[in-house]
Specification:
- The protein is an all-alpha fold.
- The protein has two domains: about 55 residues; about 45 residues, no CATH class.
- It contains five helices and no strands.
- The N and C termini lie far apart (about 65 Å).
Length: about 110
């Protein structure tokens, strides 16, 4: 489930077949409990994942999500890390260029 969540597929690909199997094998109580846990875990995953990614970076959330999904499509599993980093660097460079960072005059020394 960890790899599925990292790949932006979510935990449902493991949990839903497990719920179906529990109902089919004659354990409706455990099937219902796992179904409720699955709904809770899936909801928490969709809420916490973007918030935790954004916690350490001062970038728009949409940019981070686009980097994760685009990196996954372009580079595979390693793209989950490469995509957001490339977009973060590009965003920082564009922001510095737009706001004119580094255009100040260099300070003159007393010897000039």
């Amino acid at each position: 489930m960890l790899l599925l969540c990292l790949a932006q597929l979510g935990p449902y690909l493991v949990l839903i077949p497990s719920v179906i199997w529990l109902y089919w094998s004659g354990h409706p109580l455990w099937g219902t409990i796992l179904l409720l846990v699955s709904i809770f875990v899936g909801t928490i995953n969709n809420i916490l994942q973007p918030l935790l990614i954004k916690k350490e970076v001062d970038l728009p959330l949409l940019l981070i999500l686009a980097g994760v999904i685009g990196g996954l499509i372009a580079f595979g599993i390693i793209g989950l890390f490469i995509g957001p980093v490339l977009l973060a660097v590009a965003h920082t460079l564009v922001q510095a260029w737009v706001h004119g960072a580094g255009t100040e005059e260099p300070s003159r020394t007393a010897g000039e």
